[in-house]
Design brief:
Number of domains of chain B: 2
CATH class of the largest domain in chain A: Alpha Beta
Radius of gyration of chain A: 25 Å
GO molecular function, one term (chain B): transmembrane transporter activity
Keywords (chain B): Cell inner membrane, Cell membrane, Membrane, Sugar transport, Transmembrane, Transmembrane helix, Transport
Organism (chain B): Gemmobacter lutimaris
Structural class of chain A: alpha/beta
Oligomer: heterodimer
Strand order of the largest sheet of chain A: 6-9-10-3-11-12
Function (chain B): Part of the binding-protein-dependent transport system for D-xylose. Probably responsible for the translocation of the substrate across the membrane.
CATH architecture of the largest domain in chain B: Orthogonal Bundle
Number of domains of chain A: 3
Helix content of chain A: 25-40%
Main location (chain B): membrane
Largest sheet of chain B: none
Radius of gyration of chain B: 22 Å
Shape of chain B: globular
Largest sheet of chain A: 6 strands, mixed
Chain lengths: 504, 398
């Protein structure tokens, strides 16, 4: 065993992120960690790499035969543990060579030996199969190539254990294949890897062992070499219950058309020749939940933001109607007044003011409703927040808690409360259950069902296909700014959606 | 899920723990008291003589007036480095209009205030709508208006002002009760203020209790109010034995009350905090963030102009040096008062107390005859200590 993490428990204010997790990695293998969003995979890796230093968690780490207590990333890197995060940590304006040896410069007494730096960089680039000059600026490279630079950087530090967090999430199919091949090549050279991935076909292709984590606990560790491990088995371990019980039932009764988009066009805010949304039309009826499926970069969030007060893009054309009447959605306050609400994908940076209380977050989008002539009536405001706290079951002692102390699921309920208080006709929910635990997801689904039962039109954007399949009446499949297909609940399946996406 | 209820925790731990958790709020008040006691002792009682208390208000009025506007700018996530220069420029403008051109005071004052708003509007326009960092825009403004005041005054001091203009700063409110000394009006105002504060405090407590919010323990509430009340009565008593209530004190108090109300009770104030706390989230909640930023700068310009008038009236002359480096005192006062550099938090009362801390130190050190060199060093260290204290407490919580 190269690495053993034993009984790791890590607590944040309000949430137990890891609860008695164990992980054992053999020397020279590729070990995959699977789990839903928020299962605790990234937290576990941060514990391992010293981002959360020894002492901030319970449990022990045994690395290379000895107990290890890493104080910070530098500490773990010195022992050959290198982590490559989902968000790449390269400096875009520096060259490949400068990035690779950042903080680890070749030279002496603080004077950089450029010929040596470039020579070594060329060697490393050859190893990872990247054909670029060492002097090329990182910003000029695509994401796939940047990923390779990250790996070259890891190799420059004499890596023994390479950790990749969702390495192919942002890569094209070809780049993904190249990256997986590279991992297999490194394995042949004796480098041990841990790969965190949602893509089960990739996991099956490269992994020797698969560990599934769910709700902050280890569910299973399975040898994957024999080929007996099926994707179904992994999925079952990941979700922990049958699909049938993961989504609450709902009366599916659609009424009149509430929301309609006609020939919607949006261009990229900076690159004006790029058409991000092309001639898109859609309808949503009262009581309907309409899903939008698609890969990252398909334009789903861009569509929602452009509709919601032109918060994204430029040269927006097309018509929007609510209850058959054209509405002005040109600014966010007009969109809200027209009856639109948009629950953002990223609740922490776009949805909430983390340093403020629940009460102040709930009232934010409709302050005038708790004020008389511009003066806030705190009693009314408190009552409103209190009502939503109870009806949405936000688990907190009171509405005067700061939202940063809440768990992800409760934070998401605060965002929903904020938008429900604007009394919208149409709700656009962008990844409404991202990064929250399974129990809270179920509650969010219940809330969505209650909304549709109340006759609201709901649009749900999600990258989790099971969620779309379980919740939606219809699913639009989106690719490169267009709807490439529409499936009813009866027709829809993961395979059907995927084949529409790749049909292009 | 494990959640700790801070309210219940506080109830268990009592007054000491409550103070520890709100150390910043209480610390500020105690720091002001400690500094006052210290200077009262080392100056041999000069600090709290009636004439000096009156002076304290007159000397610091312009800082406090500008700190009100600066708090909003900083809460909104920006900074304004130009206020000292703008203040000097408006003083110069007033002098040229009134002294050189002989325009009536009643015309000059509104014109000056409008010009101040205009200056704020121009700077705010670049910051809000063109997204140029406020540091750069107002640094430019600082240079421009420093230069323009020099040009306007042609490098000379211009004065003196007519009596009616001087009254802005050095005038006193006549005693309605017709007494000379002691001034009964001053004392009456002190008593009324204490009663009003107590009433507001008790009302807020009752409201908190109704919603189950854990307020400060009652003993602490009494102690804090007793200290504030004693200070208020003491100050008004002392003022009563000099020349009564200075005009400028009245305008400061009125302005402070207005800004406390605006920041804590109105949708406008709430939205400024929201923009400073998370501009993107605020924008996606339908708040017109650009307009708000613009307005905070217009407001800052207005208050800088008012400060310029008050300052010129006090010196009874406009000089090219007026307002030099004052922006730093104003900004320091706001940060000593607990505002956060990243925006979204800070209180008007904190900024005012911060300004008084700076003011008492300036005044006390001047009485002691400490050189301007040491004064700067000490003020710098106090600012650093205050902000360090803030950051230290935040890290301790996390």
């Amino acid at each position: 065993m190269l690495l053993e993490m034993r009984n790791i428990t890590k607590t944040f204010p309000g949430v137990k992120a890891l609860d008695d997790v164990s992980l054992a990695v053999r020397e020279g293998e590729i070990h995959a960690i699977c789990g839903e969003n928020g299962a605790g995979k990234s937290t576990l890796m941060k514990v391992l790499s010293g981002v959360y230093p020894a002492g901030s968690y319970q449990g022990e780490i045994v690395y290379d035969g000895a107990r290890a207590e890493f104080r910070d990333i530098r500490d773990s890197e010195e022992r050959g543990i290198i982590i490559i995060h989902q968000e790449l940590a390269l400096v875009p304006l520096l060259s490949i060579a400068e990035n690779i040896f950042l903080g680890n410069e070749r030279g002496r007494n603080g004077v950089i030996d450029w010929p040596e730096t470039f020579r070594q960089t060329e060697g490393l680039l050859a190893k990872v199969g990247l054909r670029e000059t060492p002097g090329a600026r990182v910003e000029s490279l695509g994401v796939g190539k940047q990923q390779l630079v990250e790996i070259a950087k890891a190799l420059s530090k004499n890596v023994r254990l390479l950790i990749l967090d969702e390495p192919t999430a942002a890569l094209s199919e070809a780049d993904s294949q190249a990256l997986l091949d590279l991992l297999l090549g490194l394995k042949a050279q004796g480098v041990t890897s841990i790969i965190i991935s949602h893509k089960l076909n990739e996991v099956r292709r490269v992994a020797d062992t698969v560990t599934v984590i769910r709700d902050g606990a280890t569910i299973s560790t399975t040898d994957a070499r024999g080929g007996t491990l099926t994707e179904d088995r992994i999925v079952r371990d990941m979700v922990g219950r049958d699909m049938a019980h993961r989504f609450p039932d709902r009366d599916r009764r659609a009424g009149d058309v509430v929301f309609e988009l006609r020939n919607w066009n949006v261009r990229h805010p900076e690159q004006r020749d790029r058409r991000m949304i092309r001639d898109l039309s859609m309808q949503v009826r009262a009581g309907e939940v309409v899903g939008i499926a698609g890969l990252m970069g398909a334009g789903r969030t861009e569509l929602a933001m452009s509709v919601f007060g032109r918060s994204y893009g430029r040269d927006i054309t097309g018509e929007a109607l609510i209850h058959g009447r054209p509405v002005d959605l040109s600014t966010v306050d007009r969109a809200i007044a027209a009856g639109l609400a948009y629950v953002t994908e990223d609740r922490k940076s776009l949805g909430l003011i983390l340093d403020e209380t629940i009460r102040r977050n709930v009232s934010l989008a409709n302050l005038d409703a708790v004020a008389t002539r511009g003066v806030i009536e705190e009693a009314r405001e408190t009552e409103v927040a209190e009502t939503y706290r109870q009806s949405l079951r936000i688990r907190t002692p009171g509405v005067f808690q700061k939202v940063m102390n809440l768990s992800g699921g409760n934070q998401q309920k605060v965002v929903l409360a904020k938008w429900l208080f604007t009394e919208p006709e149409v709700l656009i929910l962008d990844e409404p259950t991202r990064g929250i635990d399974v129990g809270a997801k179920y509650e969010i689904y219940n809330i969505i069902n209650e909304l549709s039962a109340a006759g609201k039109a709901v649009v749900m954007i999600s990258s989790e296909m099971p969620e779309l399949l379980g919740m939606c009446d219809r699913i639009h499949v989106m690719n490169e700014g267009c709807f490439v297909g529409e499936l009813t609940a009866a027709e829809a399946s993961q395979e059907a959606i995927m084949s529409l996406i790749v049909k292009e | 899920m494990e959640q700790v209820d801070p309210a219940q925790q506080a109830a268990r731990l009592g007054i000491g723990a409550y103070v520890a958790r709100h150390i910043r709020d209480y610390g500020l008040l105690f720091a002001l008291i400690a500094i006052m006691v210290f200077f009262q002792v080392v100056t041999g009682g000069t600090l709290l003589k009636p004439v000096n208390i009156t002076n304290l208000f007159l000397q610091n009025s312009y800082i406090i007036i500008m700190a009100l506007g600066m708090l909003l700018v900083i809460v909104g996530g920006h900074i304004d480095l130009s206020v000292g220069s703008v203040m000097g420029f408006i003083g110069a403008l007033a002098a040229v209009m009134i002294v050189t051109l002989g325009l009536p005071v009643a015309v000059a004052i509104p014109v000056c205030l409008v010009v101040g708003m205009g200056i704020g509007a121009v700077q705010g326009y670049f910051v809000a709508y063109w997204r140029i960092p406020s540091f750069i825009v107002t640094l430019a403004g600082m240079l421009v208006f420093r230069g323009l005041s020099l040009w306007l005054l042609a490098g000379q001091s211009v004065g003196p002002f007519p009596k009616s203009f001087q009254a802005l700063s050095t005038g006193f409110i006549p005693d309605l009760f017709g007494m000379d000394r002691p001034n009964l009006l001053a004392m009456a105002v002190g008593v009324v203020a204490v009663v009003a504060l107590l009433w507001l405090g008790l009302r807020a407590r009752a409201r908190d209790a109704r919603y189950g919010i854990e307020g400060e323990p009652f003993g602490l509430f009494l102690l804090r109010n007793a200290i504030v009340a004693a200070a208020l009565l003491f100050v008004t008593w002392k003022l009563a034995w000099f020349r009564g209530l200075p005009n400028v004190l009245l305008s400061m108090v009125v302005l402070t009350v207005v800004y406390v109300f605006v920041t804590e009770r109105t949708t406008l104030g709430r939205r400024v905090y929201a923009v400073g706390g998370n501009a993107k989230a605020a924008k996606l909640s339908g708040i017109r963030t650009e307009r708000l930023t613009f307005l905070t700068f217009v407001n800052m310009g207005l208050l800088a102009a008012l400060a310029g008038l008050v300052f010129a009236a006090r010196l009874n002359t406009a000089t090219p040096k007026a307002g030099f480096a004052v922006e730093l005192d104003v900004i320091a006062a706001v940060f000593i008062g607990g505002a956060s550099m990243s925006g979204g938090s800070g209180k008007i009362v904190g900024a005012v107390v911060g300004a008084f801390i700076m003011g008492v130190m300036n005044n006390g050190m001047s009485i002691l005859g400490i050189g301007i060199d040491y004064q700067q060093v000490i003020k710098g260290l106090v600012l650093l200590a205050a902000v360090f204290f803030d950051v230290y407490n935040k890290n301790k919580d996390a």
